[in-house]
Amino acid sequence: MDFFERLKAFVDYFGMHSSPERFGSVMLQSVIPANQFDEMNVAPHHQAEINEVNRLATEAWKAMRPLIAEIKERIPEVFDEQIRGGWIRSPDE
């Protein structure tokens, strides 16, 4: 699978198995982090979903690394300025 396919698999799964939560004045889409299992009473099926979302995210990240390396090699000046980014869920989504 290439980066796009892995990223799509992560996004699709995350969209189906996550929920919006209020964090201060902002709504965030989240799942319970795996390192919090011991602190919370998380049902086994939720643990499985969280583990799968983490696995899919890791696979997408791994697939992105060669793509970044190729971009750095072909167009190194792209990385001269720090990349700022973030994703905020719009109210209509």
Q: Describe it for me?
A:
It is a single chain. The protein is mainly α. It is built from 2 helices and 2 strands; from the N terminus they run H-E-E-H. Strands 1-2 form a two-stranded antiparallel ribbon. Helix 1 packs antiparallel against helix 2 (44-74). The longest helix is centred in the middle third of the chain and has 31 residues, at 44-74. The chain is extended.
* Main β sheet profile: 2 strands, antiparallel
How much beta, percentage-wise? 5-15%
Helix proportion range: 40-55%
- Structural class designation: mainly alpha
Q: Count the DSSP helices.
A: 2
Q: Keywords for this structure?
A:
single chain; 93 residues; mainly alpha; two-stranded antiparallel ribbon; 49% helix; 11% strand
Summarize the structure.
The protein has helices spanning 3-17, 44-74, and strands spanning 19-23, 26-30. The two termini are 28 Å apart. It contains two helices and two strands, in the order αββα.
Write the layout of secondary structure elements.
Blueprint: H1 3-17, E1 19-23, E2 26-30, H2 44-74
Helix pairs in contact: 1-2
